[in-house]
Amino acid sequence: MRVYFDASVIISALLSSTGGSRELINLVNRDVIRGITSQTVIEEILEEDKPTKLGKAREDIKEFIFKSGLVVRKNVTIQEIEPYQDLIDVEDAHLIAGAKLTRCDYLVTLDKKHILRADVKKKFMPLQIVSPKELLEEIVRTN
Prior knowledge:
Helix content is about 50%, strand content about 15%. It has about 140 residues and is α/β, with parallel strands linked by helices. The protein has a single domain, classed as 5'-nuclease (Rossmann fold, 3-Layer(aba) Sandwich). It has a five-stranded parallel sheet, with helices on both faces. The chain starts with a strand and ends with a helix.
């Protein structure tokens, strides 16, 4: 199972040692699922004053990501985003592009406003866009 991680899920896992996001990172670390993200997502997590807002040192965030077991793809380019930019909020098009380019089965996110919507989910099938809870339920169902 190949899973593309949005910044929201990585941040949630970083901030809480319990919960669905952290459990997914634990599953990546134990090689139960293949966790993938991009340098674009990592840069979103590390941008400007975000580490300060999160109450974490930039180095601690980098170490968490490194130890998570996530495979980090290079930045998603403007050309790679282009096919998706009119189908989803332009700020989130890199997620769809990244998930598709890395041949992921799932995109896991906590973004209910822009991504976890029925109309968005339908547009990008067979990619399954899910919350951490939904993905954990799917893993339990299939194992």
